[in-house]
Specification:
Layout: H1 2-29, H2 35-48, H3 51-57, H4 77-94, H5 106-120, H6 137-147, H7 154-165, H8 167-183, H9 190-204, H10 212-222, H11 229-261, H12 277-289, H13 295-319, H14 327-335, H15 346-364, E1 379-383, E2 395-398, E3 408-412, H16 422-432, H17 437-445, H18 460-476, H19 483-507, H20 513-524, H21 528-540, H22 547-566, H23 572-580, H24 587-602
Parallel strand pairs: 1-3
Antiparallel strand pairs: 2-3
Length: 603
């Protein structure tokens, strides 16, 4: 009897194993039977090719898988081509499914939009500057190790040192890509070469024990309780050796490349100067804004918005007793008034961080009339790492890890305390944290019952459009009653409107870098040092800066449409639910969702 039972069990196990094997083979090598499985296949194949992304998300750690935490992303030309081929294959496979037969089509439509945009970008896959003043392996790697690589035990610290040992390979892959682009006429503007050389030379001239890669490991290990002093000393010694023998030589090779390139680079043109640059810019602009606007249309929208916002700013300034019609001149006076400034001390930098947190806590406690949907995760404020402050923007947000070990973080640039004006702080905090990026990003990460890719896939026009929209929303909700705080809001908005003008000016109308700087200073009153950083950002990221205002205008247009059609039935909380509940969307899909909600609410 026992033998018979075992035989039956064995047979059932065999059938189950065979069925499982068939399922696995189908999933890995063919179109999965279920589109839900296909969604996860696409995401995890992409994620598994990026150990740095996996370390950032911390999804696999929740099931005990940590092998990726000692590796770095492949930055080779060959791998980039393989990835582009795979995107094309994924799109073709997606379209083999019957969309009309699906119970839920939003996931299909989002993924199709994204994959199609990537496929259309194949002709331009080398039209970028992978090492520039904003991002690249030269500042991205130290930033990743400082802010992403988790050290919770000895094994994590060993992985940290192993990653240091692989820097040379990755830098050589980046160098390969730079040479590959150079052969095709894709070389960076002159200011990029100057900025990255200054940055990298400063990095390698630092004593290894004072380098952020060493001090970060020292700090993180200091927070691990069950690590012995002997282990800490040994791991720090290994890190110092890797910084000296692997990391610094890798940087030197990259430095030598740019030193040799420098005599060939004498201009600061927009991407129109690249091969087929006009066609590339049209693609970049429409991909970043998820719209069909032409460069000329966006340029004209920008000019119109600049004029409108300028008038509102002058109304406030004149009401406060300032004379004249030059926004730049009057704002220039405000920028020097002591009441709006912090003393230039380290204590003031700490106070700025604390004041930002107070602003965030205040608005977070007062949004019940405006939001039903709220994120569970928390947000903190921190300083942008000092080694990358010079080329970094005024602020940015980094999302939390999915396992909760790292909170969402609003990073503020404190390179020059006088760049932080008190009347700008509320608007910046609302944009980067609550109810801006922290709401939008964290709610997306916390979505339930959706494919994993929908928790992380970004669409700039949506995410930045939402963050800019919330600056205005905070004013509508009464959090900027002080006229100078409202002036700060309008200055931030005109800044984004000017971006429409200067981005298209640089890349479409062929403005010079200097003309773009002069126009932005004249219209916004922002100090020239900050404007230079911004204009140089637009040159290396064509179209991206236009996404903010385009996205905001779309959300405002949809809200007005809903208010007009629903009348007394309109509920701002429900509107925000509709906008946020699907995560990031291309703007046409967001419009469809809002229109469907309006139609359902009217029945």
């Amino acid at each position: 009897m026992i033998k018979k039972i075992l035989k039956i069990i064995g047979g059932l196990l065999g059938v189950a194993l065979l069925a499982g094997a068939v399922f696995v083979i189908n999933t890995l090598y063919f179109r999965p039977f279920s589109i839900g499985v296909y969604y996860e296949k696409v995401f995890f194949e992409f994620a598994l090719d990026s150990p740095e992304l996996l370390s950032s998300l911390r999804i696999l750690e929740q099931i005990g898988i940590e092998s990726h935490n000692d590796d770095l992303d492949n930055a080779s030309v060959e791998f980039a081509i393989e990835q582009q081929d795979k995107l094309d294959e994924d799109l073709a496979m997606l379209r083999e499914y019957d969309r009309d037969g699906l119970d839920e089509t939003m996931s299909y439509d989002i993924l199709e939009w994204f994959l199609d945009a990537q496929a259309r970008g194949r002709p331009w896959m080398w039209h970028n500057y992978p090492v520039n003043q904003l991002f690249g392996v030269q500042n991205g790697f130290p930033d990743f190790m400082a802010n992403i690589h988790h050290v919770g035990d000895k094994g994590d610290a060993e992985d940290y040192v192993t990653r240091l040992s692989k820097v040379g390979v990755k830098f050589d892959q980046v160098l390969e890509g730079l040479h590959f682009r150079e052969e095709r006429g894709i070389i960076p503007p002159a200011f990029v070469v100057e900025r990255v050389l200054d940055e990298m030379n400063d990095f390698v001239e630092t004593d290894p024990k004072e380098n952020i890669l060493y001090t970060t490991l020292e700090r993180k290990m200091g927070e691990v309780e069950d690590l012995s002093d002997e282990d800490r000393a040994e791991l720090l010694a290994q890190a110092e050796n890797q910084i000296t023998d692997t990391v610094y030589p890798a940087y030197e090779r990259l430095i030598n490349y740019f030193v040799e390139l420098q005599p060939q680079v004498t201009t600061n043109h927009g991407v129109w100067a690249l091969p087929n640059g006009d066609e590339y810019y049209l693609y970049a602009l429409q991909q970043q804004t998820t719209s069909n606007y032409t460069p000329e249309e966006i340029h004209q929208i920008g000019l119109k918005e600049v004029e409108r916002i300028r008038g509102e700013m002058l109304d406030i300034l004149h009401a406060e007793g300032y004379e004249g019609d030059s926004v730049a001149a009057i704002i220039g006076q405000l920028n020097d008034e002591p009441r709006f400034l912090y003393p230039d001390t380290d204590e003031s930098r700490d106070q700025i961080i604390a004041d930002y947190q107070t602003i965030i806590d205040e608005i977070n406690a007062g949004l019940d009339d405006w939001f039903d949907i709220r994120p569970r995760g928390e947000v903190k404020v921190d300083r942008i790492p000092e080694f990358r402050e010079d080329g970094a923007p005024a602020a940015y947000y980094r999302s939390a890890s999915m396992d909760g070990s790292r909170p969402g973080t609003f990073y503020a640039n404190l390179r020059d305390v006088h760049e932080t004006k008190k009347f700008n702080m509320r608007t910046l905090a609302y944009h980067e944290a609550i109810p801006g990026h922290h709401f939008q990003t964290t709610i997306q990460q916390e979505l339930e019952g959706v494919p994993t890719f929908r928790k992380i896939l970004p669409f700039t026009a949506y995410s930045e459009g939402w963050a800019l929209y919330t600056e205005r929303l905070a004013w509508e909700a009464g959090f900027q009653d002080d006229p100078y705080d409202n002036l700060g809001r309008l200055q931030a908005e005109i800044f984004r409107a000017v971006r429409l003008v200067v981005d298209t000016g640089l890349h479409y109308k062929r403005w010079s870098r200097e003309n773009a700087i002069a126009y932005m200073v004249e219209q916004t009153g922002v100090p020239e040092s900050e404007v230079v950083t911004e204009i140089e950002r637009y040159i290396v990221l064509p179209g991206q800066a236009c996404a903010y205002k385009v996205g905001m205008l779309k959300i405002l247009d949809l809200r007005q449409r809903a208010q007009e059609q629903l009348g007394e039935q309109f509920d701002i909380r429900q509107f925000h639910n509709v906008v946020l509940q699907n995560g990031d969307l291309p703007l046409d899909l967001l419009e469809r969702e809002v229109d469907d909600w309006i139609a359902q609410a009217r029945t």
